Amino acid sequence: IVLAGGGWFLLHQKQSATAVPAPVASSTASVTTTAALGTAPIPSGQGVLLLSASPWGELEGIVNEKNQKSVDLSEEKRSTPTRVDLDPGTYKVTMKGPDGRPKTFDVQISQGKREAHHENLGGVDISTIEKEMSNQ
User: Fold this and answer.
1) What is the pLDDT of residue 129?
2) How far apart, in Å, are the Cα atoms of 25 and each of 22, 32, 116?
3) Half-sphere exposure of 16 (CA within 13 A, CB side)
4) CA-CA distance, 104 to 6, in Å (whole number)?
5) Is 17 exposed, middle or buried (0-12, 13-18, 19+ CB in 10 A)?
6) In degrees, to the nearest 5, what angle opens at C-alpha 110 toward C-alphas 106 and 112?
7) Are 118 and 56 in contact (CB under 8 A)?
8) What is the average pLDDT across 121-127?
9) Looking at the predicted structure, is the pLDDT value of residue 61 above 90?
10) Angle, CA 119 vertex, CA 79 and CA 51 arms, to 5°
11) DSSP codes joined into one string, 44-71
12) What is the CA radius of gyration of the chain?
């Protein structure tokens, strides 16, 4: 009985600690997630890029146009939605989606500001995905 009571208590504590409110609508899930990424403070002297894509996107790289330096991206920053803290300036962002073709676009980052950018990377071809999955 003691073990059952202790198990119930731990389960109850874990559930209440990890409870997350459900999104209002499933079509706003990426917007809601991106908005949540944007609530953290902006580091001093920097700006923030809030990047999302539909149906999904994989960040290939970010290059500062002024000095042509690549931004170092951790693995968790490569999948959208994501937040990247950047120095002010213009950047070339390259990402790809379901079709595998890279898409490059420019973003302007201002000090103390958040720049939200959403990229439509096309639809998903189910027959192509099925072929790829059957070859693995």
Assistant:
1) 66
2) 9, 10, 20
3) 6
4) 54
5) exposed
6) 140
7) no
8) 71
9) yes
10) 45
11) TT-EEEEEEEES--EEEEEEETTT-PBP
12) 20
Average pLDDT, the chain: 77
Lookup: tokens for 70:
């690549």
Distance CA 71, CA 77 (A): 11
Q: In what order do the strands lie in the sheet with 58-64?
A: 58-64, 89-96, 102-109
What are the residues whose beta carbons fall under 8 Å from the beta carbon of 91, sequence distance 6 or more? 49, 62, 63, 64, 65, 71, 106, 107, 109
14-30 pLDDT, tens digit each = 343 434 333 333 333 33
Per residue in 112-132, is it b (16+ CB within 10 Å) or e — as a string? eebbbbebebeeeeeeeeeee
Which residue's structure tokens are 């600690």? 17
Position with higher pLDDT, 6 vs 120: 120
Q: Which residue has the tokens 């073709």?
A: 101
